[in-house]
Design a protein that fits this description.
alpha+beta; 12-stranded mixed beta sheet; 5 helices; about 20% helix; about 40% strand
Length: about 210
């Protein structure tokens, strides 16, 4: 199976991107956003308030236990130069922090978009900001980020279903939607063109 790069996938689905922009312009109330300034680096960080929740069964650990992956888009703005990431927070109904039950450290994120696989590298988000970017209903024991483009975020926002895989060196874990919707991610695409005085209606500063 062919794995497409971020840029190749964006070109392949250019018509879908156009449709997503039109849908975003017709959308109703936008989801709540958060915006903060990292005074140490001078980067303004924007994210949605709530991530999408994906889950996988883990019956080998305990009856009806589950592992969760919380996923949400993030924008970094450094003096007008913008970069985008997917934030991934790992959680579980069992104590995954114990060595015996610790999952394999993922090195890549695989996403199925309209039947086409996209694989992007993961890096651990361990600078202190990763734990606080998104609110989750379970404590997060590890956070990661994957560098993507805004076009890829739009594609994922328009996907009928969202499935991801966390690829380790010797094992892969696959998650499906548990709650939430990636369609709200289109709000991040609108954020860039929203006038500052109009952002206060659906933003909160941390």
């Amino acid at each position: 199976m062919t794995n497409y790069s971020v840029s190749a996938l964006a070109r392949r689905f250019a018509p879908v991107l156009l449709a997503s922009m039109l849908m975003a312009g017709c959308a109703g109330k936008s989801p709540l956003m958060s915006e903060r300034l990292d005074e140490r680096t001078g980067v303004t960080i924007t994210a949605l308030d709530l991530p999408v929740t994906l889950a996988r069964e883990a019956p080998d650990l305990a009856y009806s236990s589950r592992d969760y992956a919380f996923v949400g888009p993030v924008e970094f703005n450094r003096m007008g130069q913008r970069s985008y990431y997917l934030w991934i927070g790992m959680a579980s109904t069992v104590d995954r922090s114990r060595t015996r039950e610790a999952p394999p450290a993922p090195v890549a994120l695989s996403i199925l978009v309209a039947g086409v696989p996209l694989v992007v590298e993961l890096e651990e988000w361990n600078d202190g900001r990763g734990q606080t970017l998104y609110q989750t209903n379970l404590p997060v024991y590890a956070t990661y980020r994957a560098a993507v483009s805004l076009d890829i975020i739009k594609l994922l926002a328009n996907a009928e279903t969202l499935r991801i895989g966390l690829e380790g060196a010797a094992e892969s874990w696959h998650y499906s939607i548990w709650s939430g919707t990636s369609q709200e991610w289109l709000a991040l695409a609108d954020w860039e063109s929203t006038l500052p005085e109009n952002r206060e209606a659906y933003s909160r500063r941390r």
